[in-house]
Design goal:
The complex is a heterodimer of chains A (344) and B (173). Chain A has 344 residues and is an alpha+beta fold. Chain A has two domains: 239 residues, 2-Layer Sandwich (Creatine Kinase, Chain A, domain 2), CATH 3.30.590.10; 87 residues, no CATH class. Chain A has twelve helices and ten strands. Chain B has 173 residues and is mainly alpha-helical. Chain B has a two-stranded antiparallel ribbon. In chain B, strand 1 and strand 2 form a beta hairpin. In chain B, helix 2 packs antiparallel against helix 3. Chains A and B meet through strand 1, helix 3, helix 4, strand 6 and strand 8 of A and strand 1, helix 1, helix 2, helix 5 and helix 6 of B. The complex binds zinc ion (ZN) (2 copies). The site of one zinc ion has 8 residues of chain B, from loops.
Chain lengths: 344, 173
């Protein structure tokens, strides 16, 4: 086990509604065809060059661990997916694909995907600007050694023309319990799409109220503008979500009772399915937003990320039946809850 | 493109969903989008660059290309334009120059007509072809002066001076 505190073990700003922020930069090495047309020699060269350049990241205090998908078992791949270190699409293929992951799992370089390189930086809470700046610093360091495909008019040249320009995608994960309950999310998706953004329902954090909003505009605006635009919209969404939650909970006398019963269940259950855990985390999150319960949001992030089916299996290092996984999950949740100071 | 639900109004909103591992891409009009239940089977696992807009790009291109097949190949990666439309991906960085004319309508649609890059410029890039970039900067300077944007003009003039010095230094090195 690593000595680093993971990004999801830290609290972030606005983190009752916002789970995490991620900024990714797509880059391609000049002089090579895009990934889908490379041969094996070229793929190996690309990996070798980017990995060598990534040694420079120690100047930012980042030491990167290498995960070669060629020699990675399926279970490990699923763990990588549950920890959101790479997309399932990236993890599906193995040849010529390598991940470089920082100790705290906040920085990830995915080599050999749709673009030669995808630099991703993640932080807990609403941190678009902070993650954008770190991604830029990483890009600057790599660029001292690598020449990326670039053109004045079109910016960074990407395999798909969708990402031309900055090659940057900024995303925020949100928990929209109230807006979901009031059926406001479809309308929200519609509104934000007119601003060059997209809202998805997400399963990565489990519960059905998790959404991801992504800024898709890459050409014609700066990285700062893209990050700030997204933060501005997210702040408005937070306000709306808080209002929606208040409306949902109006007259809900039993809410607090349900909240504490749920916490008790997590504290004492001997078996927990992933669905049960996710539903509980969702409710607790609303409790935190509404200041009815005091729990560090980082605890919820940590449980959501580390209690997935594959992570549980991998942590145990042995095969477990569904029942065995539920027991192991309950054990993990009890251990994590016992670490924190629980309420008055 | 018409709304895929009512097939009457132009689509304005695009949804991506993965149902049981199968990717679906839906384009809806405003009206249908409002009534579309987004909360239920609507899941996207990760933020990912293999994203739905690319499918849109692909479908748009394939519609157009069917009527005007082109024999041109990219000299670097040997891609045909119809191969590009099939995969939704360009073959290499040079494809963007080779097929710029063919790509233009799609680029205009995706990013807005005449939109140019405003973000970061790699330091290495200015070093690699300074004359090209200088010419563009001088054009922008002229425009700035004509539109009386003096602050920007001053900024551009400084930048041009810097780059000219840098390129002279580069020749000696
Ligand atoms: Zn419609
Ligand atoms: Zn090419």
């Amino acid at each position: 086990m690593s000595i680093f505190l993971k990004w999801y073990e830290e609290n972030g700003s606005e983190d009752a509604v916002v789970l995490s922020s991620t900024v990714s930069l797509a880059r391609n090495l000049s002089g090579y065809p895009f990934s889908h047309l490379t041969n094996q020699t070229e793929r190996e060269e690309i990996i070798q060059k980017i990995t060598a350049a990534a040694a420079r990241l120690d100047r930012l205090g980042l030491s990167m661990r290498t995960v070669d998908l060629q020699t990675t078992e399926d279970l490990q791949r699923m763990v990588l997916a549950e920890h959101r270190l790479a997309s399932r699409e990236f993890l599906r293929r193995s040849g010529g694909r390598v991940l470089l992951v920082s100790g705290d799992e906040s920085v990830c370089l995915a080599i050999g995907g749709e673009d030669h390189l995808l630099i991703s930086v993640t932080a807990a809470g609403l941190e678009c600007e902070k993650t954008m700046r770190l991604a830029q610093q990483i890009d600057d360091l790599l660029e001292e050694q690598l020449t990326f495909a670039f053109q004045d008019r079109l910016g960074y040249l990407t395999a798909s023309p969708d990402h031309l320009g900055t090659g940057m995608q900024a995303s925020v994960m949100l928990h929209l319990f109230g807006m979901d309950r009031l059926s406001l999310t479809a309308k929200l998706a519609n509104t934000v799409s007119k601003m060059g953004m997209q809202l998805y329902g997400v399963r990565a954090f489990g519960a059905t109220h998790d959404y991801q909003i992504t800024n898709r505009m890459t050409l014609g605006l700066t990285e700062e503008q893209a990050a700030m635009n997204l933060e501005t919209i997210v702040r408005q969404i937070i306000d709306r979500e808080m209002a929606a939650q208040s409306e949902c909970l109006q007259g809900a006398e039993r809410f607090e009772d349900r909240l504490y019963r749920t916490l008790g269940e997590l504290q004492f259950a001997r078996r927990l399915s992933l669905e049960e855990l996710q539903a509980a985390l969702s409710l607790l999150r609303v409790g935190i937003c509404q200041k009815r319960i005091s729990l560090p949001p980082r605890l919820l992030n940590t449980l959501a990320i580390t209690a997935g089916e594959a992570s549980i299996l991998f942590g145990k290092g042995e095969f477990l039946s569904a029942g065995g996984r539920e027991e192991a999950r309950a054990e993990l949740v009890r251990a994590r809850l016992s670490e924190i100071e629980l309420l008055k | 493109m018409l709304c895929e639900k009512c097939r009457q109004h132009p689509a304005s909103v695009s949804y991506h969903q993965i149902i049981d591992g199968e990717e679906k891409w839906l384009c809806l009009c405003d009206g249908c989008a409002e009534s579309f239940d987004l909360s239920h089977p609507f899941t996207e696992e990760f933020s990912d660059f293999s994203d739905p807009k690319q499918n849109l790009f692909r479908s748009r291109l394939s519609g157009r290309v069917a009527d005007e097949p082109t024999k041109k190949r990219c000299p670097f990666c040997e891609s045909h334009f119809d191969e590009i439309t099939k995969t939704g991906r360009l073959g290499c960085e040079h494809c963007y120059e080779v097929f710029f004319g063919e790509l233009r309508p799609t680029l205009d649609h995706l990013h807005g007509a005449g939109t140019v890059h405003k973000g970061k410029v790699p330091r290495r890039h200015t070093e690699s072809d300074p004359s090209d970039r200088l010419m563009q900067l001088k054009e922008r300077l002229q425009q700035a002066i004509e539109s009386q944007a003096f602050e920007e003009a001053a900024r551009l003039r400084d930048l041009i001076r810097l780059l000219e010095q840098a390129s002279k230094g580069g020749e000696e090195a």
